[in-house]
Amino acid sequence: MNCAIDDGSMLWWIMDDTYSSSSRGGFSGGIGAPGSGGGIPAGIGQSGTSISPSFTNYTADSDACLVFLNAFSGEGADRTELSNAAQDAMVTAVASDCAKTIVVVSTESGNAIADVLYGEVNPSARLIHTIAKDEKDYPVGVCYEADCAFDESVYIDYRHFDKFNITSRYPFGYGLSYTTFTYSDIKLNSIDSAALNNTCPTGVPTLGSKKDLFDTVLSIDVTLTNTGDRAGAEVAQLYVDYPAEAQQPKRQLRGFKKVGLGKGEEKRVSFELRRDVSFWDGGIKRF
């Protein structure tokens, strides 16, 4: 709200069929849709409310529209659906009239998204799951039974999408920034060549496997550069690929680091890989 008042923006916020508004000057509430002449002139920071049959009365007159969606869930009360027809209809209706429609799916996101939209914060978060184009693209649905069969094995989330070459709406690890980054000079370094030459760990037994399963054997270095015109943070993500005989997913996340960089700054980022990038061989019962 303070940001909007400072730059003279008009805000309308609608919950159900009730809207409130605030502006630096001019129309700031009253009965009637924007532009209908029903508003009451008001001073800086004043506001008003009105009852309207539909929020679509206001979208066409707006420079940008934010649609906030949420789903009730919690301990002992899982969400009952992955999509909601009423919410989908609302987003479609708003977007059809408002060229700049932003959909926010979160809890307690109002303050955070305002800082991002006004440029006070440069976003750097990444998706922790894949957002599909269609609910049927996911390997399993919502299960309401006491006993549920999950037979997707290790092919969950992005691994499933990779396996079946399904194009997602937004992939796992996706995110945006007001600046740009480049990766260069990637180097793979051998730390323990002897361990790499052994097909299986050979150390003393310990919890989970042989002790040397958890030794660092490789490191990967890359130069990360902020090529944009403002400071920001990038989340560097490391994925590994296994040979065909391993019968493993095409790629698996094995490391990530968030790196803050000023305008034009570059940093060397390093990842270490342990022998736990090995896979379990059911035939010999070993990693």
TrEMBL record:
The organism of origin for this protein: Bimuria novae-zelandiae CBS 107.79
Domain of life: Eukaryota
Sequence intervals crossing the membrane: none
Enzyme Commission designation: 3.2.1.21
Function: Beta-glucosidases are one of a number of cellulolytic enzymes involved in the degradation of cellulosic biomass. Catalyzes the last step releasing glucose from the inhibitory cellobiose.
Molecular function in Gene Ontology: beta-glucosidase activity
Catalysed transformations (reactions): Hydrolysis of terminal, non-reducing beta-D-glucosyl residues with release of beta-D-glucose
Membership in a protein family: Belongs to the glycosyl hydrolase 3 family.
Pfam families: Fn3-like (PF14310), Glyco_hydro_3_C (PF01915)
The keyword Amino-acid biosynthesis is assigned to this record: no
Keyword Transport among record annotations: no
Protein name, entry field: beta-glucosidase
